[in-house]
Structures are given as structure tokens and as C-alpha cells.
Design brief:
By secondary structure, the protein is mainly alpha-helical. 55% of the residues lie in helices and 7% in strands. It contains four helices and two strands, in the order H-H-H-H-E-E. A two-stranded antiparallel sheet has the order 1-2. A hairpin with a 2-residue loop joins strand 1 and strand 2. Helix 1 crosses helix 4 (47-59). The longest helix is centred in the first third of the chain and has 16 residues, at 2-17. 2% of the residues are buried.
């Protein structure tokens, strides 16, 4: 549940600091739902909200990715040496 809470916290922060995005999300939700309960069918129509959620996850992922590659040899990159075995 921590990852969900973290994602929602960042989403609310970004919506609060970007009023124009918040307004556009609210308008889309009001237009699509039209006072009806949310359903699987109308969720598909919330394209702007879906994009906002994806962008939020791109900007502030709730789980940090770890490096999965390890240098097999000493490598030089832009004047710096990356030693063998470094991930």
C-alpha cells in the first residue's frame, strides 16, 4: 500500500501545483461521468486523466529502479573511467 500512497501523494501535489491540469481533469471527469457512478466503460473515456496518471508515474515513480547492468570491462566515458564490476 505504500507505493499506492506515494503515487497518490505525488499526484495530488502535482495537481495542486498545476491548477490548469487540475481544472482540465475535473472537467473531463464531470463530462464523462455526467453524475453517474464510475464504471469500466467510462474509465476508458478518461484519456486526459490517464495521461496525467502516466506522467505522474514517469516523473515520480513510487519505486526506484535499481541498476541491473554490470560493467564487464573497464570503460571510459566522457573522460571518466567506469571500473569493471560496477553496476
Amino acid at each position: 500500500h505504500e507505493t499506492t500512497a506515494t503515487a497518490l501523494t505525488w499526484l495530488f501535489y502535482h495537481l495542486a501545483t498545476n491548477k490548469h491540469v487540475q481544472d482540465k481533469v475535473a472537467e473531463e471527469v464531470a463530462r464523462v461521468l455526467n453524475g453517474q457512478p464510475i464504471s469500466q466503460e467510462n474509465v476508458k473515456e478518461l484519456s486526459y486523466l490517464n495521461n496525467v496518471l502516466k506522467e505522474n508515474m514517469r516523473m515520480q515513480p513510487p519505486v526506484l529502479m535499481t541498476a541491473t547492468r554490470v560493467a564487464e570491462n573497464n570503460e571510459e566515458f566522457e573522460g571518466s573511467v567506469i571500473p569493471k564490476g560496477v553496476s
